[in-house]
Amino acid sequence: MERLAATGAHNFASIERVVFGQPAAAVIAAEATRLGSRRVFIVASRTLRTQTGVIRAIEEALGERHAATFDGIPQHTTRSGVARATAAALAAEADLVVAVGGGSVIDASKMVLLCMRHGMVDEHLEALERFEVKLGDDGKPVRPVFEGPTLRMIAVPSTLNGGEFNGGCLVTDERRKLKQTFFHPLMMPRTVVLDPALTLHTPESLWLGSATRALDHAIEALLSTTPTPLADAVVLDGIARMARALTAWRAEPASLSARAECQVASWLCSYGLSSRGPKGGVMMGPSHAIGHVLGGSCGVPHYFCTPVMMPAILRWSEPATAARQRQLAQALGRPGLPAAEAFAELVKALGLPSTLRDVGVDPSQFGMIARTSMRELFIHGNARKISGPAEVEEILPLAA
User: Has keyword Oxidoreductase (predicted)?
Assistant: First the structure.
C-alpha cells in the first residue's frame, strides 16, 4: 500500500467572530446585545483603566449592561489574582466576561470562566490541580475530562502575542513559582476584537516583544510534530505580514493602519494555536516550554522569552527542519540567510534583548531550567525530539 505523504488532524476553533479595525467600545456593546448579555463583567489592565479612557468608554457603551470591572491581575497570571477576579465576577452575577488588556488579563479571564463553573474561589485555588494538562509517560499531553465553562468571554487584546486565539492558558502558582497549563475548547473567546486605536497605549517594548510572541506561535507551528497544511499556509502568510507590518510601524508608530496590519498578522501567526485540541491539532514546542520556565521560575517577562530563545532553538532544530526553516527565512524577507540568523537580525532591529544574560539568567540556572522544562506540555512538540534535560542543556548555551 502506498504510504500517505502526510497525516494528521486539524481542529477548528470555537471562536465565532473576529472583528478587526473597529472601535472596541461599540463592538463590545453590539456583541453584548447580540449575545443577550445583561451582566457584563470586565477584566481590565490596570494601566488601561487608571491611565486612559479606554475602559470607561467600554463601560459607558455598555450602559446598564455593565455589571462591574476588575483590574487586579498581576503579570504571569497568578492563582491568587484569578481567585480574586472569580469572586468579583460571582458577586457581580456576570453572564459575560470581557477581557481588555495583555496576555495575563486574557489568560486570567479564561480561568475565571473555569473557576466560576466549578466554584473555586479560595486564595490558592487548591482544587485546580485536577484540571491541569500534564505529560503522560509517553510524552503526550494528558488532558483531564471535565465540564467546561457555561459562561463565555470576549477578548480585546492590547498586545500582539495572539494567545486569545486559543482555548488554553497559563496560570502561575506563586508558592511554587510554577506555571501550569489548562485547556478547554470553551475557554476560547466567542469573539475577539482587534482595535488598533486601543494599542496606542501599549508600551513600545511590550508591543515589539509581543510581536515576537506571535511569531513564536507561527514558527513553532511550522516546526511542530503535528503540522497541518492549513496552519502552515496561514502562519507563513502571518510571518511575512508581520515582518512587513513591523517595518511600517517603525517608520510611523502612531499609524493606525500599521497597527491594524500588525494585529491581523498576529491573528494569522496564531492560527496553529487555535487548532490545538483534545483530538488533534498543532502542538507548540520548546520555545513555549522553556519560556514558561523562564517566566514562572526566573521572572523573565513573557514577551522577552522569544527574542532570547528562538534563534537558539532554530539553530538546534535545523537538522530536522531544514526545509521548513528555508520557508521561514523567506517569509521573514531574508531568503539568503539561515532562519536563526534572519530571526536574530529582526530581534536586533527591534532593539529587544537577545541573550539569556540580557534578561538576568546565567548558566548556574541552566540545570534547573532544563529539569523543569521537561514537565512542560510542549517540550516534546518539536520535530527534532527532546528526550531529556540533556537536550535542553544543549539549547540553553546557544542563547547565553
Answer: yes
Residue 366 confidence (pLDDT) above 50: yes
210 φ/ψ angles, rounded to the nearest 5 degrees: -70, -30
- Domain covering 203-399: architecture: Up-down Bundle (1.20)
Give the three-state DSSP class for 63.
helix
**Average pLDDT of the residues in 195-202:** 97
Least reliable range by pLDDT among 22-36, 64-78, 171-185: 171-185
Q: Please tell me the predicted confidence (pLDDT) of residue 75.
A: 85
For strands 134-135 and 178-183, give the pairing: unpaired
User: DSSP for 347-388?
Assistant: HHHHT---STGGGT--GGGHHHHHHHHTTSTTTT-BSS---S
Q: Record the cell numbers describing residue 113, joined without a space.
A: 470562566
DSSP bridge partners of 20: 194
Helix-helix angle 302-331:229-251, to 10 degrees: 110
Cell 540556572, residue located: 365
Strand partners, 155: 99, 192
| Beta-bridge partners for 157 | 101
Scanning the chain, the segments in alpha helix (DSSP H) are 24-35, 46-51, 54-62, 79-91, 103-118, 204-222, 229-251, 256-269, 271-274, 286-298, 302-331, 339-350, 366-373, 389-395
- Provide the pLDDT for residue 399: 97
CA 86/CA 89 separation, integer angstroms: 5
Please count the residues of the chain: 400
Topology of domain 17-197 in CATH is Rossmann fold (3.40.50)
Distance from first CA to last CA of the chain, Å, rounded?
Answer: 48
β-bridge mates for residue 134, sequence order: 142
330-361 residue pLDDT tens: 999 999 999 999 999 999 999 999 999 999 99
Where exactly are the structural domains of the chain? 17-197, 203-399
Is 279 a residue whose pLDDT tops 60?
A: no
- Indicate the pairing of strand 153-157 with strand 17-20: unpaired
Neighbours of 398 (CB within 10 A): 16
User: DSSP assignment, residue 398?
Assistant: G
Strands 168-173 and 153-157: unpaired
CA dihedral 247, 239, 295, 350 (to 10 degrees): -20
Taking the model in full, what pTM does it have? 0.92
